[in-house]
Amino acid sequence: MNTIANRFGPFWLQPGVTSGHMLTLFGGAFSTIGLLTFIALSTPFVLTQYLQIPQGQQGTVSGWLHVYQEVIAIALFGPIGVLADRIGRRAVYVGGLLCMAAGYGLYSYADSLPELFAYRFIYAVGIVAATGMLGTIIADYTEPRSRGIGVATMGVLNGIGVIFVAVGLGQLPQMFVEGGATQEQAGHYAHLIVAGLCAFFAFWMAAGLKSGTPVAKTERLPVRDLMRSGYAEALANPRIALSYACAFIARSDLVLLGTYSVLWGTTTAAAQGLPAAEALAEGRKVFAIASTAALLWLPVMGIIIDRLNRVTGVIIAMSIATAGYLGTIFIDDVLSREAIPLLILLGMGQISAFAGAQTLIAKEATNETRGSVVGMFNVFGAVGILISTAVGGLLFDNVGPHAPFNLVGGLSLLLVAAAVIVRRRAPGPLSDRGAGIALGH
């Protein structure tokens, strides 16, 4: 039964979870996703300054680094989820942030590509552990009736953290150069500062997150059962299977938005005769419009989902995503004023898919197997990223800049149809708004 002590602002908390635990988690949401994006900003600098990779080869090398990272993620999300169900979320989260710190600290000291891939492995292990725990812990801490707004709040903090890193930490090398450092020194200093921030937040999570697992030690499932649970739960519960399909779309469309919206704007500007630097600035504007719309829409989507059956929420979320991604076919000039409403809808669609997927898996995964199930959810997301990255690039070059978005829009439409079937046959609770609803039931 809930009391006022188990409420923190708009969030209804599980027994034993305090406002301090939630504030610590919010700090993790702000820092983790933002800090992991620094790798995208720093890799071109490392390839140019330290490894002297020619510009014409950097795209290929960067692509292989990303594929390598996602393969590691696919391999590790499941086992790390099992580990979290056995030893606790806090230990895994802290270990992940410390691996990120080690990866960043070593990254700029690579003397060869094999060495760079080795350091990228350490970093990849870190992001699998750290990001996997974000979705798991918000489900552990909140009751079902406020889980949608919890996921939305985490998403907003993720976005603010990304902006902070892009605008602030992304300028560190240039700031050090202007202060008198060499290019080589500036890169080392920047990476060491980011490594230090990862270590700082690791200690913050260690001090402020709740220890242990949501179930008593005597109630923990054997490791063999946990390893099977990611698949078994999906076979037994159509809503978990649906959430896995949502992860495939939601993770891949995030990559598409961040990669191909910028590329679309940049190539359009370059075709209009703008210099490279100005063309890149125009490309970033396209992404900025869509991502700003996403941040503003996310709390609204969270509130909507909290008032609906979770599968109904997925239907609405993926319908918006379908409209946003298929709507790009009507964009003639992505830099024109006429394109802005469609870019806004694109951003709303991308974040709606994220919110629908996250809240559904958070609702359906039970205490005993949540880490394992969320791990499998993340595996499907990583597979989605791999496929969308490979196929999206080919479509962009050979069909048109709207083609990668249309691909995801078509898949989203199929997912809406699947969600309608699940809603009719296995809808789950009609609402989580009532008090005293047990987690995972």
Structure description:
With 441 residues, this protein is mainly alpha-helical. The chain folds into 2 domains: 1-212, Growth Hormone, Chain: A; 225-427, Growth Hormone, Chain: A (Up-down Bundle), CATH 1.20.1250.20. Helix content is 77%, strand content 1%. A two-stranded antiparallel ribbon has the order 1-2. Helix 1 (19-36) packs across helix 6. The two termini are 15 Å apart. The model is unreliable at 215-223 and 433-441 (pLDDT under 50).
CATH architectural category of the largest domain:
Up-down Bundle
CATH superfamily of the largest domain: MFS general substrate transporter like domains
Q: What is the helical fraction, as a range of percent?
A: over 70%
Number of domains: 2
Q: Flag low-confidence runs.
A: 215-223, 433-441
**Strand count:** 2
Query: What is the fold-level CATH name, i.e. the topology of the largest domain?
Result: Growth Hormone, Chain: A
CATH class call of the largest domain? Mainly Alpha
- Structural class of the helix and strand makeup? mainly alpha
Question: What is the terminal-to-terminal distance?
Answer: 15 Å
Gross geometry: globular
Helices and strands, in N-to-C order?
Answer: EEHHHHHHHHHHHHHHH
Computed over alpha carbons, the radius of gyration is 21 Å
Largest beta sheet, briefly?
2 strands, antiparallel
